[in-house]
Amino acid sequence: MKKAGVMILFSFILFLSACGTVKKEQATTVKDEQEEATEASKPEQETKIQANDESNIKEGGDTETSQKETVTAVKTEYQLNENNWTIEPINNANSKVVLLTIDDAPDTYALEMAETLKKLGTPAIFFVNGHFIDTPEEAAVLKAIHDLGFPIGNHTYSHQNLKNLSEEQQYKEIVGLNDKIEDLIGQRPKFFRAPFGSNTAYSKKIAQDEKMLVMNWTYGYDWEKEYQSKEALTDIMVNSPYLVEGANLLMHDRQWTREAIEDIVKGLQNKGFKMVDPAQIKTVE
User: Fold this and answer.
1) Considering 21, 37, 70, which residue would you say is the last residue of a domain?
2) Which is one GO molecular function term here (predicted)?
3) Who's near 88: CB < 8 A, 6+ residues apart?
């Protein structure tokens, strides 16, 4: 009888133990299923957050790009007199102005000249030769000048006299350089200056087709030996008999011109001249 009672008690204990195990397993299974469900939902939530963040970044970037691309329109106030190459006011614009132009850039000193002009708040056109922007380092200099806010003009690829070239060669000298400049700075030049001021009927046609204003100059001296010093060049540029309202001043990428350019600007300003912004000059449409 006692033996039978012990057996019954033992069986009851086993039963309770089994029930506990089942409950524990059920609890574990439910917990596991909940954790799996939670983990399964995480990627979707994170993906949505990342997508929203990316959208915000993209939208912000678009706004920033839009702001950078917004360029304040500059009013056209001057035009080029093609008979004497002076800059003439349109309507009531200030007539006591001169235009600064730098040829043969960027040979050696153009960037330093651009930095000096930028410091002085003085605009100018930099007329570029293609053989000075053949290497990545030279191309970077051109881009730096452009990034300082100076317009880039076309001075042909290799600075040859266009009157000695065939039409095909002239086309390559001019349009080939425009293509190269556009690749580097994203813009085609609006101004064209033939080497030695030697234009041809065909080069003028190309310039017209390329929407470039053909521009020679009023006076310049820095290629003449007697003016290849800071003092001599400053004096002649500021006191030239050809200094008139609207004068179109020619200078070059040369050491003595770099040394003189700040004094030239200040000397012209002391005479009451303002340096005209090339963006205010009417170009070819």
Assistant:
1) 70
2) hydrolase activity, acting on carbon-nitrogen (but not peptide) bonds
3) 78, 79, 80, 81, 95, 246
Identify whether residues 60 and 168 lie together within a single domain: no
237: which residues sit within 8 A by CB, 6+ positions away?
221, 249, 251, 260, 264, 267, 268
Would you say 170 and 203 are in contact if contact means Cβ atoms under 8 Å apart? yes
Question: Is residue 285 in a domain?
Answer: no
Same domain, 120 and 253: yes
Domain encompassing residue 255: 78-280
Do 88 and 14 belong together in one domain?
Answer: no
- CA 264/CA 231 separation, integer angstroms: 10
pLDDT 10s digits, 33-50: 333 333 333 333 332 222
The answer on 240 and 137 residing in a single domain is yes
Is residue 218 exposed (0-12), middle (13-18) or buried (19+ Cβ within 10 Å)? buried
Distance CA 63, CA 164 (A): 51
In a domain, 90, yes or no: yes
**pLDDT, tens only, 193-250:** 999 999 999 999 999 999 999 999 999 999 999 999 999 999 999 999 999 999 999 9
Same domain, 50 and 84: no
Q: Is the peptide bond before 106 cis (omega within 30 degrees of 0)?
A: yes
Q: How far is CA 176 from CA 17, 74, 81, 188, 284, in A?
A: 93, 29, 27, 11, 19
Whether residue 50 sits in one domain with residue 103: no
| pLDDT tens figures, 164-209 | 999 999 999 999 999 999 999 999 999 999 999 999 999 999 999 9
